[in-house]
Every structure is written in structure tokens, then in C-alpha cells.
Amino acid sequence: MMELLPCAACDKTSRGRLHGEPDPSYRSQYQRDRDRIIHSAAFRRLEYKTQVFVNHEGDLFRTRLTHSIEVAQIGRSIARALKLNEDLVEAIALAHDLGHTPFGHAGQDALNKCMSEFGGFEHNLQSLRVVDLLEERYAEFPGLNLTFETREGILKHCSHKNARDMGELGQRFLQKKQPSLEAQLANLADEIAYNNHDVDDGLRYGLIEITQLQQIDLFARQYEIVSRQYSNLDQRRCVHETIRRMINVMVVDLIETSQKNIADANVMKIDDVRDQKSALVAYSEAMRTSTLELKQFLRKHLYHHYRVRRMTVKSARIIEQLFRAFTEDHGLMPPQYQQKIDANGGPAQSGQVARVTADYIAGMTDRYAIGEHERLFSPSTPT
Ligand code: MG
Fold first, then answer.
1. Cα separation of 71 and 63, whole Å?
2. Whether residue 169 sits in one domain with residue 120
3. 299 lies in some domain
4. CA–CA separation, 33 vs 373, rounded Å?
5. Which end of the chain is more exposed for a tag (fewer CB within 10 A), N or C?
6. 343 CA → ligand 1 middle, Å
């Protein structure tokens, strides 16, 4: 195996798992984490969860699953170049969206609103809840019992209020410390993936135009080079070639800037990384400005496009109505969810009913949520 940086995460310095287990024989601890994530039910559901476009809108759009695979790919390439732990980056990348609701951010916002009296709903915390608790697969422990480092990477952000209840994992938010370099990297690989694939999907769907994108520095520069060099290229290929080059310039900038940051900070072990004032895996100042410009463009022209908004409103309505129906009568939920409420004995506590309902709804795929909504609200649909 390739020599890693002394400050990279490795089995020897891992803070371990919540429930003690024998070491794996032929895998590293982070390979084991990644493998458990791939075998989880929540991972399979990502295939039918929206990134920006709802799953039934077309077969070519990114889903949470293909998005997560792209994040893992970008993350691994950068990890190898930086001599960081590829397996850990991959595990974090594949798990980072496990807690997402159906219908993307629209779903999360709607569920958060429904849960406002009961501690709210946040997809990051939910991803952690999935791997720590909700997956029921192993005889010896609840959840997937992942290493501290993978869990640290999944919990990208966290409010102070929630951090106080998170034990060891919440400490860094209260003490303003950094996560591992691998976690920092997975976070930016996520951003590189969605910024680029949303441009691709947005163009394919016809919600944004090349002429608009030409006002964005990152796109314009690569687009100009490609169209000058290949003047007869058809437009789809020209777009792909441009996006491929955009990903490349972002990745190269990130590698070179991070290499320099890591060398300058003189970090010798993973805890030195955690003690830094700011993240060492980062873009150059110029690239940060450019990615911000692209993000703002996507927010304005894609995520807030009226056709995306219509889907957003429809999705929010489905989530709100499901939530209300299940919390008013939790006997409408499948038995395994009712049992979680009734297991305590005594009358059902409204906070607990709400949390179990949120877990049930958050686990749904887009099409399952639409189906549940029809089964509950449409008299002609069988229940
Ligand atoms: Mg993501």
C-alpha cells in the first residue's frame, strides 16, 4: 500500500467504534466501514432519491446514488494525490447523503418545519442516525457501528445546541476544531461533484442556457478553449468536454493548494490537523471566489427555476400531509414503526411519535413517498 502522510487517518490512530469488535482480518477498518455502508438498505434507497430532479423526471439525471458515487470517485482521486486515506474518504462519500429525505432539499425543509417543535430535522444528523441506529442488520449492535472517523466525516455541520447532545462527536463544533483531512476532502469533493453535475443536468433539462453560463468565469474559460479547439463539435459533446475540464481545474487547484497548506502547517499527526484554526484541504482564494460565483448562479437560475419550484411545492405538500396523517394516528404506519412507539408502554409521547414518523418519512424514496401519499389520500388507490 502507498505510504500515507503521517497526519492521514489510519487504523492505528483510529478512535475506534462505539461497540468493540475484533479487527478485520483482510481489510482495513475504513474498508470495513465502506463495505457496511454499501450493504445497507439506506444506501440502496439512494437510487430512488432526488438530487435536484425528482426520480421520475428522466433516466439520465443524477440521483443521490450516482451523486454519491461521483463524490467517492472525485474524493479518491484527490486522496491518492494528497497521500490521504482513500478508503476513509470513500466511506464518508458513500454515506454522506444517507439521511436525505425524498425530494431533496425541498423534502428536508418541509420535514424540518414539521419537526420544529420536536428538535427539528437535519439531513446531516439523520445520516448519522441511520448509521448509528436505524440500520438493523447486525446481531451484536444497532446501526453499522462505524469508526469515529467515518462518523466524524458524516457530521459535516452541527448546531451548538445539537452538538451538546452528540458526545465525543459534537466536541469539535463546541471547541471550533477541525475534522480529519479526509473529512475535509469528502466535503469539498461533494461540492465539486454537485456544482458540475447540476450544470450538466440543468442544461440537459433545458432550465439553464449556455449563453447564461458564459457569464460564469469557471464555465466560460473552459467553454472558450473547447469551442476554439474543436469548432465542429456538437453541442452535447462540447458541454461534456467543458464540464470535464471544469472538474479537472477544480481538482488540480484543490490538490495543489491543500498540498501547500498541509506542508506549511507542519502537521505531524491527525490530532494536529484537528487542532488547526481552519481547514487545510481548501481551494486557492481565486478558485474559492469562482466556485462561489457558480454556486450563486445555480441557486438563482436552477434551484429557484419556476419548474423546480413547482416540484418543490408539490413535494413539500406530500411530506407535510404524510407527517400530519401519521402523527395524528400512528396506527396508520406499518407495524414495525408502531412497535417503536408502543415498545415504551404507556401512552405514546408526541415527541417520540414525531421522531419515529420523521425516521419513516426520511427513509422513503421519492416514488415510495408518492405511493404512500396516494394510498393514504386517494380513495381509489388500494391501501
Ligand atoms: Mg452530497
1. 12
2. yes
3. yes
4. 35
5. N
6. 34
